[in-house]
Amino acid sequence: MKILILNGPNLNLLGKREPGIYGSQTFDQFFVQLQEQFSSIELTYFQSNIEGELITKIQEADDLFDGVVLNAGAYTHTSIGIGDAIKAISTPVVEVHISNTFGREEFRHQSYISPNAKGVILGFGLQSYELALQSF
């Protein structure tokens, strides 16, 4: 099984950005742990702050991966294009968030991803990714 983990804007700052919300571990450090924990799954990781690059990766995933774990960051709440890309592919996508977006600002309560996702996992810190991987 091949799974793409796709992170959006500002997730390259994990470990530095708001550690009270996002923790002190970088995603690169965490990704090594995921690879060890899920050694039977071929994991690929990509992060971008650019919406179009995320859309391209989602489109490419349809031919290359059995599933996508997507944390689109702030694009979750603004990007109709990412939502449409997920709707256009047959590969299942699990939406994840490190924080509980419903416990944060009102604008974070809207997701353009959720209606087209296999499921949504949020609020469990980096463990949200582990739970998403277990769903495949």
From TrEMBL:
<dbReference type="Pfam" id="PF01220">
    <property type="entry name" value="DHquinase_II"/>
</dbReference>
<dbReference type="GO" id="GO:0019631">
    <property type="term" value="P:quinate catabolic process"/>
</dbReference>
<dbReference type="InterPro" id="IPR036441">
    <property type="entry name" value="DHquinase_II_sf"/>
</dbReference>
<dbReference type="GO" id="GO:0003855">
    <property type="term" value="F:3-dehydroquinate dehydratase activity"/>
</dbReference>
<feature type="binding site">
    <location>
        <position position="77"/>
    </location>
    <ligand>
        <name>substrate</name>
    </ligand>
</feature>
<feature type="binding site">
    <location>
        <begin position="98"/>
        <end position="99"/>
    </location>
    <ligand>
        <name>substrate</name>
    </ligand>
</feature>
<keyword id="KW-0028">Amino-acid biosynthesis</keyword>
<comment type="similarity">
    <text>Belongs to the type-II 3-dehydroquinase family.</text>
</comment>
<dbReference type="GO" id="GO:0008652">
    <property type="term" value="P:amino acid biosynthetic process"/>
</dbReference>
<keyword id="KW-0057">Aromatic amino acid biosynthesis</keyword>
<comment type="function">
    <text>Catalyzes a trans-dehydration via an enolate intermediate.</text>
</comment>
<feature type="binding site">
    <location>
        <position position="108"/>
    </location>
    <ligand>
        <name>substrate</name>
    </ligand>
</feature>
<dbReference type="InterPro" id="IPR018509">
    <property type="entry name" value="DHquinase_II_CS"/>
</dbReference>
<protein>
    <recommendedName>
        <fullName>3-dehydroquinate dehydratase</fullName>
        <ecNumber>4.2.1.10</ecNumber>
    </recommendedName>
</protein>
<dbReference type="InterPro" id="IPR001874">
    <property type="entry name" value="DHquinase_II"/>
</dbReference>
<keyword id="KW-0456">Lyase</keyword>
<comment type="subunit">
    <text>Homododecamer.</text>
</comment>
<feature type="active site" description="Proton acceptor">
    <location>
        <position position="22"/>
    </location>
</feature>
<feature type="active site" description="Proton donor">
    <location>
        <position position="97"/>
    </location>
</feature>
<feature type="binding site">
    <location>
        <position position="71"/>
    </location>
    <ligand>
        <name>substrate</name>
    </ligand>
</feature>
<dbReference type="GO" id="GO:0009073">
    <property type="term" value="P:aromatic amino acid family biosynthetic process"/>
</dbReference>
<comment type="pathway">
    <text>Metabolic intermediate biosynthesis; chorismate biosynthesis; chorismate from D-erythrose 4-phosphate and phosphoenolpyruvate: step 3/7.</text>
</comment>
<feature type="binding site">
    <location>
        <position position="84"/>
    </location>
    <ligand>
        <name>substrate</name>
    </ligand>
</feature>
<feature type="site" description="Transition state stabilizer">
    <location>
        <position position="17"/>
    </location>
</feature>
<dbReference type="GO" id="GO:0009423">
    <property type="term" value="P:chorismate biosynthetic process"/>
</dbReference>
